[in-house]
Amino acid sequence: MEKIKFTLDTGESVEFYILEQTKLGGNQYILVTDTQKGDGEALILKEITEQETGESIYEIVEDDTEMSAVAEVFENLLEDIELK
């Protein structure tokens, strides 16, 4: 499982394991977790490209409709998980 390091707005670094990635409606999403094995905290992150720098940043998906649609895709891709 690939591990990726993110730098928060505060400058703090956090690491997540990438469970899966998908593209939906022209947007790239990744499903990440804080633990490699067992039950952990999972987040769905949306890739946003900064127009000024062209750099990719990731934001937590918070919109309920968007979250529901993307979670359903990830549940289908990873049959052994349930996102709620």
Write the topology of this structure.
Blueprint: E1 3-7, E2 13-24, E3 27-33, E4 42-49, E5 56-60, H1 64-77
Antiparallel strand pairs: 1-2, 2-3, 3-4, 4-5
Organism: Parablautia muri
InterPro entries: UPF0473
Pfam family, one: DUF1292
* Low-pLDDT ranges: none
Strand content: 35-45%
Most strands sheet: 5 strands, antiparallel
Helix content: 10-25%
Topology pattern, helix = H, strand = E: EEEEEH
Structural class: alpha+beta
Global morphology: globular
User: How many domain regions?
Assistant: 1
Give the rounded overall mean pLDDT.
88
What's the number of extended β-strand segments?
5
Helical element count? 1
Task: Determine Rg (CA atoms, Å).
Answer: 13 Å
Alpha-carbon distance between the two ends: 22 Å
Task: Give a brief description.
The protein is an alpha+beta fold and 84 residues long. It has one helix at 64-77; strands at residues 3-7, 13-24, 27-33, 42-49, 56-60. The protein has one domain (3-77).
Task: Kindly describe this structure.
Helices cover 17% and strands 44% of the residues. It has a 5-stranded antiparallel β-sheet with strand order 1-2-3-4-5. The chain has one domain (3-77). It has one helix at 64-77, and strands at residues 3-7, 13-24, 27-33, 42-49, 56-60. With 84 residues, the chain is α+β, with helices and mostly antiparallel strands. The model has no long low-confidence stretch (mean pLDDT 88). It starts with a strand and ends in a 7-residue tail after the last helix. It comes from Parablautia muri. This is DUF1292 domain-containing protein. InterPro entries: UPF0473.
